[in-house]
Amino acid sequence: MAVRTLVAACALFVGMCIVTSGKPTNTTHAFCRVVWLVGVPCDQVKTAILTQIKAMGSYKLISAASGVIQANHTSAIGQIEAVNFTVIDTAMSLGCHIEGSSMSAFWYSLFDNGTNYCNLRNVIQGSGLNSAPGFVEFTNEWLCLGYGLSACK
Fold first, then answer.
1. Which of 51, 107, 131, 133 has the largest count of CB atoms under 10 Å?
2. How far apart are the first and last CA of the chain?
3. Closest CA relative to residue 118, chosen from 92, 83, 79
4. Is the pLDDT higher at 97 or at 93?
């Protein structure tokens, strides 16, 4: 059991290093980055995310190439957020590492009360991936503005 916990912790640490080593975040816009691990093959994860995005009327699929899914979310007040999911096979190939990001288009939405987190969470929850074996979520207020204030519907 301790070995599994250590492996999961190492995988989360490596995942966060990958997420935070990408291009710099534009801090003049509200943003959110989340990493999930699931014990489901990435092809099933990608299908689940794509199906959910297509089923949600407030999302518009932009592209789905390789392991990257890009979409736009339009809020009830017309605000647009860019939403991206990247799926990466884990080293043991029995699971999938998912990186999600959402960024608001407008500078005045810096304090969005967790809207960007909810954009990501609603897709993951709607697809049922939050109930998948081995589901783990990692984010915090530094990676996801308004995370602690979010009240997703």
1. 51
2. 35
3. 83
4. 97
